[in-house]
Amino acid sequence: MGKKGIPKTSVNSLTEECIRVQKVYDWITDTFSVTKNICFSQEQLRKIEEALEDPCRRPLRLQCQTPASSGHYAHGEEYYSEKDIFFCEQIGDKRDVTVPLNGSFVDAQLVDLLFTTGIKVQVVDRRGKVVTCLTTDASVLEPFVLCYPEGTDLFCRVTRVLCKIPTGSVLLNCPAPNNFQVVVTFCVDIQIEAEVKLEVLAKFCTPRENDLQAEEFEDICPSPDFPQQCPDIFPRAGCDCSTSGEASGCTGSKASEKGKLGVYADICRNCALSESSLRFTFEDENGGLNNFNFVADTFQQDSLCCEIQDGRSMKFLVSGTGNTDDGEEYDFNFAAVDSKGGSCFQLQLCDKRGVVVFESGIVQVEEGSLEVEYCVSFDDLRLR
Hints:
eleven-stranded antiparallel sheet, mainly beta, single chain
């Protein structure tokens, strides 16, 4: 124990310290855009039109490039390199102003800042070869109300510069436009700082132990890595069987309407559901009041089913959606049977609530034919 009643403290306890730091007096971020009109020279237009006349080089594309964002720069400093230019500078002197804030008036400073960036525009052909290029600059002057007292410094930073060609970046045919517009957007960061001395409660830092280790690994040649497929997109699942043909016959005994139903089917050609087609024509025997045409629009892959019946016939089933000639949309269920004794088919149409609005019953083919053929799949080859 030291003095009576005062405990002895450790050498590296929290104590009052005086440190030198950069204090931030104000900090704002904002976004500004400027539109600039850019013109091609006659020589540049000649090169562009020569490229457009070559079908192997068109279409041409306009590419707009801006410099990478810079770091913080104090008022009066500039950034410049041989490739790009970038300026962030104060124009004129700051002025004292009084502005309303939260129901009262406060004193602040008004300053105008100029942001300038270099722009490079290239015209490239379909192979990426540069046809011509030009360079220019874009500037935006904006006022800022800041806490910017005497003795502080202004630091400005552009976090990003964006360039866009709103009129379109593709040139298809002659004559080429002799001018176009570019929209340049500045994302800015403004800080007011000053070096100050602050008294704080602090203690000295101590280093940590070197207690982290990483496993060593040998340099080995990577194994071949192929891009992953997209099984939900491609390749699509195949069909177990297909049906094709054109046939007609009278509706069956359990039909909702009496008449003659014709079908044209070309489903799973080449054992793939893509580009399949299915059409029906119904002629009502009661004067044609209920005649309709129906065309299938989509087929459900998971509804496809093929069944072998009695070892002598093939049954094909599929469901989907389609439209009648008056624009009504219905779900459909279609079945076709191909046997040595003859072919038959069945159609069922349902509305969005699942209510059956048309039932053909089993239609025996009287004219034409329907063929159902089995598709050999990879699974069949594996079983052999």
